[in-house]
Amino acid sequence: MRDMFFNMNQEVMLELKGKFKYGKGQSKIDITDFILLRRIGDFILSSKTVSVIKDNEIYHWVHYDTIQESLPVVFNTKKTLTSRVEKLKKLGLLINKKHTVKKSETTEDGFNKAGTYSIIQLSKDVRKLFDEPIKVKINESIPKVEYKGIPKVEYKGIPKVEYKGIPKVEYKGSPKVEYNKEPQESNPKKENPSLGNFEISNEEEQEIKHQFEKTKKLITVSSLFSMINPSFVFLNKKLIPLAKEVGSQQVINALKEIYLEARTDKIKDLEALIKSKIKNKKSA
Predict the structure, then answer these.
(1) What's the pTM value of the predicted model, to 2 decimals?
(2) CA 1, CA 11: separation in Å to the nearest integer?
(3) Which structural domain range is residue 255 located in?
């Protein structure tokens, strides 16, 4: 047997034929009735069909002229179609209600005239006609699977690890390195080929610092100690006193350059500048 006939479940069709019978055993439903139910079902599923909610149920306004025109071989007149509809209503396969439309409720795509309309709904038995049958192969059984439960796993706990502490490391200290030290003189002589040999005592060193403070020049500590150089000794003892006498801004700028940039090579130039200033001052 075919499962579907005119897109209807043939098994459900047979059940409905057996449910509605005359006294002699003849069914009250024939193939023409099923074709009409199929066409009404298609009409209801159309997006153009007007639907109404009444008593919390959805009903549809079915245009019988359209159905008759689509199936003239089965229903040659509208009267033959409506007589079939009335029979299906009496059997309860079609549920019918009256719906009154006021003039203010008319629409172009709905009820376009005021009046009373017949709205219908397919019964639950009829809706089963459109369900596809569930296909089950004969003698096909579901294989049995033996459930053995969750396998037991023996818990042995977290493995113990013996803690032996941080390994001790013997510290032997930093290795001693012997440096080759050259003997130093207690009071070394500092030489400058251009100015001759000078031997500087602690008193002379303090005097150099004192002379520098009197000039009020800012230098770094490293520059201060570089004054021990014999060239700076000559500068502080001989040239600075002469520079004070001259009082020239040019001489002061030259002193700044020598002190701040440690330009010992400029000392001779400064000496010549001071001498020329003194000469000019005397001649004036």
Answers:
(1) 0.45
(2) 9
(3) 197-283
